[in-house]
Amino acid sequence: MEPTTITINGTPESTAAAPIQEPQRQQYYMEKARKQLSAFSTALGRPLTCCINTFGCQMNARDSEKLLGILESIGYQATDSEHADFVLYNTCTVRENANQRVYGRLGQLGAYKKKNPHMMIALCGCMMQEPEVVERIKTSYHFVDLIFGTHNIFKLAELVSTCLDTRQEKKHRTVIDIWKDTDKIVEDLPVERKYPFKSGVNVIFGCNNFCSYCIVPYVRGRERSRRPEEILKEVKRLAADGVVEIMLLGQNVNSYGKNLEEPMTFAQLLREVEKIDGIERIRFMTSHPKDLSDELIEVMSQSKKICRHLHLPLQSGSSRILKEMNRRYTKEQYLTLAEKIKAAVPGISLTTDIIVGFPGETEEDFLETMDVVRRVEFDSAFTFIYSKRTGTPAASMENQVPEDVVKERFDRLLNEVQSISAKICGRDVHTVQQVLVEEENDHTPGYMTGRLSNNTVVHFPGDPSMIGKLMDVYLEESKGFYYMARPV
Ligand code: SAH
Ligand code: SF4
Ligand code: F3S
To answer: What is the CATH number of the domain that holds 468?
Structure first.
């Protein structure tokens, strides 16, 4: 029987045997795919379109910008429509509901493809690093043309080209290329940014922390820091291109630089980034509390460019649960750290992530979380119901908390978080602050929307020529989670 899938390069080693190195090897495939697609477009008598749907975090969003850069460079034009000629889902698997959304929408994509048989459907991202997901797609979603993972996104042109070759044979096959892990970082590929004035910049890939509930280390591999020269080169290029705000990205940016040939701390990297002219605002995501150093707090307190915002995931306020979660800090250590940061950077906005219903969480443990929430007064908190992830240590722990108990705790936590945010978010009212103007206001014509250094949203009268500019506004009124302002 003819195989219905083609599995290529199951490990990174098999590409290492190739005669030319990346990214030159990909330049060759980009050229090849460009020719193939140009012939295809001529045959159809119209340009080819592509659409990328991103699920998940900033890391995925940045990956999607790279994937779009490659698709545009080989001849696709971006569209929002899922009726495009090439549709790519960049998936997330951090919680089960992220997976369910993908399966739900895939069914609909299959129906579109029936109407437009030359459409190509591709799946990538964290979900695809799970073998059982790939099996399910192979058996239940035959119409998918291409599946790849998180470690080889740089190969997209090559993979598209392979798919086009298999189409020539007039047989439908799913091309699958998943790597278990990689030590490779491929630089200098095309990128198509979503915003002209702000950009994410990867500094470290992967995660070594293995928090017991979390699937990310299994799907994103071990920590790999980019070389500082590459990061600084990219930031300089972005500045020259008109970018004024950057967000340095990593699952745990505070681990940056440990494995470099010449080790360097994240705080040292920040000092270097800060020297780059044209960059006015620097953000970073995410900081693990166990690794947040005094050196970093000092750099933040001295810097004119680092934004007054820190996302510091708490996960739980109970030291016992934190131990079970393998977070490696206690409630007291977290509280001390939060105090230290608030004292060093006045007016800083602290935001967090909290999981409710981790296995074995008692009412007492939950009350410890509520206590931290009240004491720290987070500007906002992302609250999540614990989701069992196959293969993680927490999935096989006993004492999974009943659903109704979790739901009740979740509602209580959300209420508390929201009432604290409403109370403290307006603290800068009646002052002049700088905003970065981001977009036109969706609801009120003649109004623009921007963000303060501490990430709070501000609406004010203006016009689209202001987009991408930093300007001063007077905060007239606090609306709880955002301000109404006027330019000064
Ligand atoms: N690297 C980041 C987090 C990435 S995942 C960090 O360490 O902070 C984003 C958030 O998803 C986590 O902070 C956590 O709160 C939540 N999360 C991760 N796994 C989860 C799970 N199994 N169930 C519910 N929430 C989870
Ligand atoms: Fe997941 Fe923990 Fe790594 Fe964050 S630090 S990605 S929560 S394992
Ligand atoms: Fe999701 Fe992967 Fe990010 S699992 S949260 S997209 S690293």
So the answer is: 2.40.50.140
Domain-embedded: residue 17: no
Q: Residue 355 domain-assigned?
A: yes
Q: What is the 354 CA–ligand 1 centroid distance (Å)?
A: 8
pTM (two decimals): 0.95
Q: Report the atom number in ligand 3 closest to the C-alpha of 59.
A: 3
Six token digits for residue 128: 């695809």
102 CB under 6 A from ligand 3?
A: no
What CATH number does residue 121 fall under? 3.40.50.280
Within this chain, do residues 323 and 367 fall inside the same structural domain, yes or no? yes
Residue 386's nearest CA partner among 410, 415, 412, 421 is 410
Q: What is the pLDDT of residue 168?
A: 80
Ligand 3 atom at minimal distance to the Cα of residue 91: 6
pLDDT at 433 over 90: yes
pLDDT tens figures, 18-28: 457 898 999 99
For ligand 3, is residue 92 a contact (CB within 6 Å)?
A: yes
d(CA 14, CA 125): 21
Beta strands in 204-363 (DSSP E): 204-205, 224-225, 245-249, 281-285, 309-311, 349-356
Q: Which atom of ligand 3 is nearest to the CA of 150?
A: 2
* Residue 423 pLDDT > 70: yes
Domain of 466, in residue numbers: 431-487
Q: Is 25 in the pocket of ligand 1 (CB under 6 A)?
A: no
Same domain, residue pair 347 and 459: no
- The overall average pLDDT reported for the chain is 94
